[in-house]
Design goal:
The structure is a single chain. The chain is an alpha+beta fold. The chain is 27% helix and 21% strand. It has four helices and nine strands; from the N terminus they run E-H-H-E-E-E-E-E-E-E-E-H-H. The protein has a seven-stranded mixed sheet with strand order 2-8-4-5-6-7-3, with no helix packed on it. A two-stranded antiparallel ribbon has the order 1-9. A hairpin with a 2-residue loop joins strand 6 and strand 7. The two termini are 42 Å apart.
């Protein structure tokens, strides 16, 4: 993937809209259009679950007798401090010193089911559950010790602060920047009340191309159906649904 600067995106968007020498749309407004296009493209790729175009991770430690952990709340001492969180991808917890185990979510109507069943300090982690509630991660049963937890998550789309922003990095995946440029050009011409029919058709073609191409990112080994009962080492755990 090659990084694309905001200056390049601004220039190419103006070329596409034939507004290279037209200041009807200021650069500051054009940056907003580009950011909106990046966000829309980000969502298209995120919807291809399992392809993991955008995935990050963050580790934190639980505290004894604390079941709720804000994902990003500067007023909380138990803040996980993920400032770019968008969607949750998975939760792992570390036991036995170095072994990571996958934690499953609980349904909301099961919020009281596990509170007295299982322990974080024993090999009973199959009974530990989590759920996102608002901007928090809630665990049940309540942690009884400090345990390392890893959050796998999809970050928010990269956003440029201005037309001179050089610190923000946005990677162009296989020329998909063309979608963002076409998106921004449409917005520019709509403000000018010009005809955007051709650009809308091009944008739809680009979306179709990206949607079809985004799947099967690992062309050698495409994804298989997930066995939800085999997420952890079978030598440690049975294939129980409990």
């Amino acid at each position: 993937m090659a990084s694309v600067t905001i200056a390049t995106l601004v220039s190419r968007s103006r070329q596409r809209a034939d507004m290279e020498n037209n200041n009807f749309v200021q650069d500051s407004e054009l940056v907003d259009y580009i950011n909106a296009g990046i966000s829309e493209l980000h969502d298209i790729l995120v919807q291809e679950y399992g392809q993991d175009y955008y995935v990050s991770s963050k580790e934190f430690n639980t505290a004894a007798d604390k079941d709720t952990y804000p994902i990003n709340d500067s007023t909380s001492t138990e803040n996980i401090n993920i400032t770019d969180f968008y969607k949750l991808r998975g939760i792992d917890a570390k036991i036995n010193g170095s072994d990571w185990f996958t934690i499953s979510p609980f349904n909301f109507n099961e919020r009281n089911l596990y509170q007295s069943w299982g322990s974080w300090s024993l090999l009973g982690l199959t009974n530990i559950r989590y759920r996102m509630v608002g901007g928090n991660l809630v665990f049940t049963p309540t942690p009884d010790t400090a345990t390392a937890v890893k959050i796998w998550y999809i970050p928010q789309a990269a956003q440029f602060a201005s037309s001179t922003d050089t610190s923000t990095i946005w990677d162009d995946i296989n020329g998909y920047a063309e979608y963002v440029i076409t998106f921004a050009a449409i917005r520019m011409l709509q403000k000018e009340e010009s005809d955007v029919t051709v650009l809308l058709s091009q944008k739809q073609d680009l979306k179709q191309r990206i949607t079809y191409a985004a799947a099967n990112r690992d062309a050698d080994n495409p994804l298989s159906v997930t066995d939800i009962y085999a997420s952890n080492n079978k030598f440690w755990y049975s294939r129980s649904t409990s």
